[in-house]
Write a structure and sequence with these properties.
With about 120 residues, the protein is mostly helical. About 60% of the residues lie in helices and about 0% in strands. The relative contact order is 0.13.
Amino acid sequence: MDNNNFDGGSDNGYQSPNYDQQAAVPDRKGMAVASLVLGIISVVLFCLWYLSLPCAVVGLILGIMSLKSSGRGMAIAGLVISIVTLVITVLLFVLAAIGISILNDAASGINWSDFDF
């Protein structure tokens, strides 16, 4: 007996692929994990602003990109930590600028000729 069907396929017990299905959307769970890790690194190293700032920005971008993944909780945590680090870094810069301004004003009122060097 012939195992060929009338539609040209063979009847071998396997299903033919269904081409009507949409392509699977790739899961961005890795991006959520990376966002969380970069957020934690940026918080730990916030005193080293030249390392903390890029980590926080990249963590923020990856967190936004991975919000629709299965690792949504990690993405939100990475976003929050990155935002907190950015706020701390901006406050650190503002306070440093205010401190430098105050010290400059205080130093300009000193008569340096009164001191013996």
